[in-house]
Amino acid sequence: MSNAKSKAPTPHIPTALIDLLESDALGHLATIRANGTPHVTPLWVDHDGEAVLVNVRLDRVKAANMRERPEVAISIVDPRNPYRYLAITGRVVSWSEDGWREHMNKLARRYMRVERYPWFFPGEQRAIFRIVATHVYYEMGDA
Q: Which domains, ranges and CATH numbers included, belong to the chain?
């Protein structure tokens, strides 16, 4: 059932699949632990037109992994068509604590349909990690 449109390495996310980064589809982020084993976790995804954005608590394993070993992979499957997906290999190029609260509220509106992220807590520290694609593989979900 494969109808792949990208076999060669390319860092370009097709315009026809940007909606996956703007929908309520969960991403699965793969990072590398200090011992070299993979760590995969579902999370909300976003983009800024140039990079994939993930908003992560700084006390999480994935945050430490991304700061210390910036090579990552993300897959996003269309919940309405599991044969339509993005598989992105990339590199964390930066992270910043600036604007993380506003960004979480934006994501909560999209993913939870609520105005404010409900699980903020005092002293919480988060950062927005920017991931630039080095390779993109995708399927359009066509039969």
A: 15-140 (2.30.110.10)
